[in-house]
Amino acid sequence: MVRKMTDMAATAENGFDIEQVIRLLQKEVADYQVPVVDLIAAQTKDPFKVLVATILSARTKDEVTAAACRRLFKRAATPDELARLSIADLEKIIYPVGFFRNKAKYLAALPGVLAEKFSGRVPETIDELVQLPGVGRKTANLVVAVAFGKPAICVDTHVHRIMNIWGYVQTKTPLETEMALREKLPPQYWISINSILVAFGQGTCRPRRPKCDSCIIADLCPRIGVTPRKTRPNNTKNTKSTESTKSTESTRKKEGLFFVSWNVNGLRAALKKGFLDSFFELDADIFALQEIKALPDQLPDEVRQIPGYHIFWYPAQKKGYSGTAVFSKREPLSVQYGLEEESFDAEGRVLTLEFADFYFITAYFPNAQPKLKRIDFKQRFNTRLLAHMDRLAGKKSVVLCGDLNVAHKPIDLANPKANEKNPGYSPQERAWMDEVIRAGYVDTFRLFNSDPDQYSWWSYRFNARAKNIGWRIDYFLVDPGSRDRVIDAAIHDDITGSDHCPVSLRFK
Ligand code: SF4
C-alpha cells in the first residue's frame, strides 16, 4: 500500500513521471565525472573529510576543490591537526578555492566548535550540522547524505531550478523545494538526486540556454519558463552555422581552445547583471574583457580571484573609463601591457599574452566620437596596433579580439546608409578594416556566417536590442597563417548584461 502511494506521488498530475526521468538521467550522467565530495566519501569514508570538502566545494570547480583537499589533508587529516593551522596557513593551502578567505576562517573555527558542542565528532543531523561555521542547510544535507548515507535531500540551485522546470514542484526558494521534495520524492532518490541534477544541470539543462535540442528527456519535459538555446540549420548555401547541431557541438567541445571576448561596459555594473553566471557558463579557456571601467581594488573578490584562472588587469589611469582584462586557464609565458605609447597606454587599451604557439591580444579600440573629433587618435592607435600584430605574426600565430569600434561592411550594421559618416562606420575607419583584411587577417565570424542581422552591440536607446537594430563591432581576427587553426566562431547574442554581447572563437 505504501509503495502504491509513493508511485502515485511520483507521477505528477501533469503526467510527468519522475521515476522514468531519474532512471534515464542516471544512465545519462553515469559517464560524467564523479562530484568531488562523493569521491572523497568513497575514498575515505571519513565524515570530517567529507565535511571539509563540502565547505571548500561551494562556488568552486571540482578539480580546484580536489587539489585543495589533497593539500589540506596532507597537513590536517583530523580536527586536532586542523586546529594547529592558522588562518593565514589555511588561506595559502586552500587558495584558489572560491571565497578562500572566508572558508579559511570557517575551517580555523571548526575544530573548536566540534570539540565544544559535539565532543570532537562530526554530528549526523541537519539541525546540528548547521551550527558549524560555514555550514548552511545545503551543505548539511550533503554531509548527511554523502558522509552518513542517511536520507537527506541536498537542494542547490540546480535541483531547485530543474524541479521547477519540470513542474514537479512549484516553489520560490531552495528551502521550499527541499520541503516539497520531502513530501513527494520517493526516498530511494533523496541521496542521489543532488549529484544527478548537478551533473545534468552543468552539462545539459544549463541555467542559460539549456540544450533542449539534445536532451535525453526532451519528450518528457514540460520546459516551464525555459528559453532553450538557439540552433540554426547546418549546410545552408554559403553559410556555415555558428550554433551547432548536437553532433558537431560535442565534437567541437572536445577540440581546441575556447576564447571569449566581451565589452562589459563597466564590470561592476555587469556583475550586478549576472556576469559571473555567463562567465562560468561559457567556461572559456581565455576570457577577455574590454571597458572594465574599474580598478581591481574596486572589484569584489569573487571576480578578482576566480579559481582556475590567471587574471591580468589593465585599467585606465582615469577612473571609471576604458580598461581591459584577461582571464586565462593557462599561465602565459609573458604579458605585455599596452603598446609602449603613453597616450594609448594611459587608457589601458591593449593586453598581449604570449603562449607557446600563439599570441592572444585583446584591445579596446578608441571611439572616433561624434563629428569624428577623435578620429586622428583612433587612426594612430589603429596603425600602431596593426604594426604590433604584424611584428608578432612573424613569430607565431596571432589572435586579436575585442571591441574594434567599427562595423566593416554594410552587412555589419542595421542602418548603413544613415551611418555612412558617423563614428564606427566612417570611411576612414572602414578603410583601416579593409587594410587589415587585405593584409590577410581573417574576420573569423564571417568564415562561418554570411547572414545579415548578426550584431554584437545595440544602443540602449529606442529599444534597439529588442528590435535587433545593431552593429557588429566586436571581432576575433587571426593572422593570415592561422586560418586553418580556426574551428568555429560565434556571436552570443542571447547573453545580456552589457550593451555588447560576447563573441567567441574555437581555435586549435
Ligand atoms: S528539455 Fe530542456 S528544459 Fe527540459 S530538462 Fe531537458 S534541457 Fe532542461
Structure commentary:
The radius of gyration is 26 Å and the shape is globular. The chain folds into 2 domains: 2-202, Endonuclease III, domain 1 (Orthogonal Bundle), CATH 1.10.340; 246-507, Endonuclease/exonuclease/phosphatase (Deoxyribonuclease I, Chain A, 4-Layer Sandwich), CATH 3.60.10. It has helices at 2-10, 18-28, 36-44, 47-57, 62-75, 79-83, 87-94, 100-118, 126-129, 137-148, 157-165, 174-184, 193-203, 246-254, 267-272, 275-282, 301-304, 342-345, 375-393, 427-438, 444-448, 464-467, and strands at residues 257-263, 286-290, 310-314, 324-328, 334-337, 350-354, 358-364, 397-403, 442-443, 457-458, 470-471, 474-478, 486-491, 503-507. The strands form 3 sheets. Strands 3-4-2-1-14-13 form a 6-stranded mixed β-sheet. A hairpin with a 3-residue loop joins strand 6 (350-354) and strand 7 (358-364). Helices cover 40% and strands 13% of the residues. The longest helix is centred in the first third of the chain and has 19 residues, at 100-118. By secondary structure, the protein is α+β, with helices and mostly antiparallel strands. Iron/sulfur cluster binds next to loops.
Shape: globular
Structural class: alpha+beta
Q: Strand order of the main beta sheet, please?
A: 3-4-2-1-14-13
Instruction: Find the count of extended strands (DSSP E, 2+ residues).
Output: 14
Question: If you compute it from the alpha carbons, what radius of gyration comes out, rounded to the nearest whole angstrom?
Answer: 26 Å
CATH architecture annotation of the largest domain:
4-Layer Sandwich
* Name of the CATH class of the largest domain: Alpha Beta
pLDDT < 50 stretches: 1-13, 232-254
Looking at CATH, which topology of the largest domain would you report? Deoxyribonuclease I, Chain A
| Terminal CA distance | 59 Å
Number of contiguous helices:
22
Please summarize the sheet with the most strands: 6 strands, mixed
Overall structural domain count? 2
Task: State the CATH superfamily name of the largest domain.
Answer: Endonuclease/exonuclease/phosphatase
- pLDDT averaged over residues: 87
Bound molecules: iron/sulfur cluster
Tell me the fraction of residues in β-strands, as a range. Answer: 5-15%
Helix share, percent: 40-55%
